[in-house]
Every structure is written in structure tokens, then in C-alpha cells.
Amino acid sequence: MGMAASQARLLSLTSRLHDVELRAQSIESQKIALATQKDELYENYCEALDATKFQIAFMGADGSGKNWEIASFKNMCTFMGDDRYHDYALKDTKTGFLIESKDVVENYNKFKNDKYAFAWAMLGYDMDGAENADTSWGEVGTTAYARNAAGDGSSASFSLTPENLGGGSSVMSATEWEVYNNASGDDKTVLENLFKNIEDAVAEGDTTKRDEAVTAFRNKLYELPSTRDAIFASFEGTDSKTTWTDISSEFNYYCRKFEAIQQAGGCKEIDPQFESGSQGETWLKNMVEAGLIVIQENDKINGANAEWKDTSVATSTNGNYISEVQDDKDLKKAEAEYEHELSIINRKDTKFDKDLSKLETERTSITTEMDAIKQVRNDNIDRTFGIFS
């Protein structure tokens, strides 16, 4: 019975030893997984240290110095008042089109032949004199305008109609035509001379010259304070509540945007999730660095007719206004996440070490007892066989 009991105890201890070793192997595997997590965490932290974003300059509150903001579609490609030094546009390299917001795309597609119609529409007005009206710009833009060519009341007339303009790109609106007819003094003389250029081009059948003449005529309407203010005054709700000064910056901004879109051949809508926020900031940088987007800039020195040109953060000559920097906000966030996750991993690792130490103590105890039982068993065998020898 003694030998049987020793053998049973030995088998029990062997089972326990295997269980302890299996648990120890499981913990060792978890420690290896923790080491892998720690390596990944460190790599992510290093990436955050190396990560940068684009920033653009805005004027300081007192007009001096610069305030820098992380660049996104929203603060680069929408109207931000006069505080932003330059205007920017994002050009899709596959199509050549500019990437714009939904309302810009819709209004450009509706008024793509008329810069001023587009600008007024973006401000919420239409040329019929009503804010947010439903009147079609297409109908307004194709109204026939008559002028007595002889100037003496005779039946001879000259008409700016869609037919004789050949669907030209610069047909005037009814409001602009009315303001021209009511002009007086030196302004009237200047405008009449420009209008004569339109008449001459139409008479010659030169459509290119005609469109250029109409564009020059309309530009002058918006350059002369008297006619420009008269056009604006025709809109409802723009008398004592709002002046031209209040809307001129935004109006000219949309004129510049229209010119940029025309130069690009069209525009496409941006995914709303990438317009702003950290996701939008990252999207912008990644798209530019991948060569899928090119940044264009306009320094605004020529008002509504300033030149648009490609630029880049790396080679830009206007580095005082757009640059690449480490995003301190994201860096601090990455540091906090790294320290938090690392502390969790370290706590788990410490617990695993303690568990392994306990298991090693238990294993040592088991093996010691097993050795003792084996010795007793061997002694019993030697003694038993000694009796019969």
C-alpha cells in the first residue's frame, strides 16, 4: 500500500506540474504579445513625432504680426474675410478641376457663363432685385436688350440678344442694363465708349472681340462707384442695413473663385467629411503629398482679376504665408496616448511577472516533493528486494 500511495501521489503531482508549466507558457505568450504591442505603440509615437501638417497665415488682430492656423479645405477654400493673406484653391490632378463645396459647384454649373451672376448667387441675391429669389439666372441672362443705334429715335436699332451674341459668355443682366441707361456724367461717357466697342465687334461679326468688349464693359460697371452702388442698391434689403463696403470683399472673392474655376475647366464637390477638423487637415496633407491635389494661390493684389497660379509648401516663394509644421496639438495628444497605453502595458507586464514568479515557486515545490517521493519509492524498492535477495 505504501508504494501504491506514493505512486498515486507522484501521478497527482505530475499532473499539477504539467498544469503549472502550461499556465506559465500561456503567460509567456501573453508577455510576448505585450512586447509586440509596446513596439507598435512606440512606432506610432515616432510617427506622431514625425507627422506634420500644413498651416496658412492670417493677419493678427491689430493688423500686425501673423496668426497661423492648420490648413484645411474650410479655411483655405471658403470666404474667411480679409484676414487671410492669400486665397487658395485645391486642384484635382486627375481631372484638372477645382475641388469646391456643394453650393459653389451648384452655382457654378448654373451660372458658368457669368462671373457676376455667380458672385451674386453665392451672396444669396439675384438680378431681379430679390434676395434668395427663385428667378432663373438663365432667363435673366438671355433677355433681349435694345438700343437705338442712330440715337435719334428712328426705327434703326441694335439689340444685344442671345441670337446676335451667339450665346456669348458675357450677356448683361437686366439690372446692369438699367443701371447703364441711368448713368450720367463722365461715368456715362466712359461706359458709352466701351459699349461702342461691343457694337463695332457685333457689326464686324468678330465673336471673340465681342465677348472681350462685353466683359470689359461689365467690369467697368463694377469698377465705377456710381454704377456699382446702383446695381447693389437694386437688391431688396441692401439699403440702410447693408452697404457695398459690407459685401465687396466677399463679392470680389467669389469673382476670383469663378475665374479660378473657369481657368481649371470646371469644379467637383468635396466629400463633406474632409472639409474641416483633424480628419480634413490630414486628408489635405495626404492628398497633396500623394500628388492627387495641387494647391493654387491668389495674392489678391488685383482685386477680382488677380492671377491664380500653382504653388506648393516645399517650393513656394510665399513661404511666409503657407508652410509645414509639427502640429503641437496632435503631438501632445500622441504623447498622452503613448504614456497612457504604455502604463497599461507595464502594469500587465508586472502582473504577469508576479504570476510567473508564483508559478515558478509552485513548480519548485512540486518538483522538490516529487523528488522526495521518488527517493522514498526507490528506497522501498531497494529494501523490499533486499529482503528476498
> Which quaternary structure do these chains form?
single chain
Q: In order across it, which strands form the biggest sheet?
A: 2-1-10
Strand segment count: 10
**Alpha plus pi helix count:** 12
Shape: rod-shaped
| Uncertain runs | 128-170
Q: What is the first-to-last residue Cα distance?
A: 21 Å
Round the Cα radius of gyration to an integer and report it: 40 Å
- Give the strand content: 5-15%
Number of domains in the coordinates?
2
Class computed from helices, strands and strand pairing: mainly alpha
Order of helices and strands: HEEHEEHHHEEHHHHHEHEEEH
Average pLDDT metric:
77
Query: What fraction, in percent, of the residue positions are helical?
Result: 55-70%
- How would you sum up the major sheet? 3 strands, antiparallel
Provide a compact summary of the structure.
This protein has 389 residues and is mainly alpha-helical. It has helices at 2-50, 73-77, 102-110, 115-122, 137-141, 174-181, 185-204, 207-223, 225-233, 244-264, 277-289, 328-387, and strands spanning 52-59, 66-70, 87-92, 98-100, 145-147, 158-160, 267-269, 293-298, 309-311, 322-326.
How is this structure best described in words?
This protein has 389 residues and is mostly helical. It has two domains: 2-50 and 332-387; 53-328, no CATH class. It is built from twelve helices and ten strands. The chain has helices at residues 2-50, 73-77, 102-110, 115-122, 137-141, 174-181, 185-204, 207-223, 225-233, 244-264, 277-289, 328-387, and strands at 52-59, 66-70, 87-92, 98-100, 145-147, 158-160, 267-269, 293-298, 309-311, 322-326. It has a three-stranded antiparallel β-sheet with strand order 2-1-10. Helix 1 packs antiparallel against helix 12 and helix 4 crosses helix 10 (244-264). The radius of gyration is 40 Å and the shape is rod-shaped. The model is unreliable at 128-170 (pLDDT under 50).
